[in-house]
Structure prediction request, 170 residues.
Amino acid sequence: MNDVVNHTLLVSIPLLIFPTLMLLYALGASHEAFRNDFPEDIQQHMPPATPEDQRRGWLFGGIYLLTLLGTLVYSTLLFLQHHGGSFRLGFAVALTMEVMMLLIDLFIIDWLIICTLRPRWIIPPGTEDCAGWRDYGFHVKAAVQRKSIVANVMISLTMAGIAYVLYLAF
Prediction:
């Protein structure tokens, strides 16, 4: 398990810079990509989405998701190539990386940038005065709800499976 911890610290966390930056870019480029991730009062005050807003939301949300998933597979594959191992170890790497991304999202993106700094490029028009922008607890509740935990485990299983198949194939 020491190899997993070392890999997380030296490889996985630095690789998470890419999806983190893509998440920030997607937040600024399209509020629609994450409309359902905002507190209820913010969602209610957001202007209705135009078809162009929806397209941009799908585009930038999709690019972020592909960046995150690709990084999970890549890091897990690197671990398997350098340390050998089983699917179980690959899953441990992917899950640990997923948890690290969850913590980066919670503490850096949600709490520091969204709740504390609140840069204008993240704030959809008409939501500037919503109380949800300071709701730190909302983000914790979203991160630890059952469906989020299940989704993170399933994503980790799937990405570890893809990495393991690639490892066996090459």
Notes: The two ends are 24 Å apart (CA to CA). The chain has a mean pLDDT of 97. The chain has one domain: 1-169.
